[in-house]
Amino acid sequence: MSSGELQGNHQLSERELQVIELVASGLKNEEISQRLDISKRTVDNHISNILTKTGTDNRVALVRWALQWGKVCLDDVNCCTLPQAEP
């Protein structure tokens, strides 16, 4: 198993997944803190923990990781739709 496969299996909290989604949408840490109603320091800590868990070194690598592992959907990139049930 490659290190990328191991990194994709790390357990991320719901809050960490929210932070990843906001990072992927281009928000700065201060903007993320306002959006989630938490302190900037808490956002900094979440991002540090996320980078460690995912084995990424920066925000760009994190977004690439999130796209690769299906953790985010950006402008219909890496998105799948469920089949519609016939009436």
Care to describe what's here?
The chain is an all-alpha fold and 87 residues long. 57% of the residues lie in helices and 0% in strands. The chain has helices at residues 3-8, 14-24, 29-36, 40-54, 59-68. Helix 2 (14-24) crosses helix 5 and helix 3 packs across helix 4 (40-54). The longest helix has 15 residues, at 40-54. Residues 1-6 have low confidence and may be disordered.
Secondary structure: elements and pairs:
Layout: H1 3-8, H2 14-24, H3 29-36, H4 40-54, H5 59-68
Helix pairs in contact: 2-4, 2-5, 3-4
How would you spell out the order of helices and strands? HHHHH
Number of helices: 5
Question: What does the overall shape look like?
Answer: globular
Query: Biggest sheet, open or closed, and with what strands and sense?
Result: none
Instruction: Classify the beta-strand content into a percent band.
Output: under 5%
Helix content: 55-70%
Report the radius of gyration as a whole number of Å: 14 Å
State the separation between the terminal residues, measured CA to CA.
Answer: 43 Å
Secondary structure category: mainly alpha
Question: Overall pLDDT, averaged?
Answer: 83
* Count of beta strands: 0
The low-confidence parts are 1-6
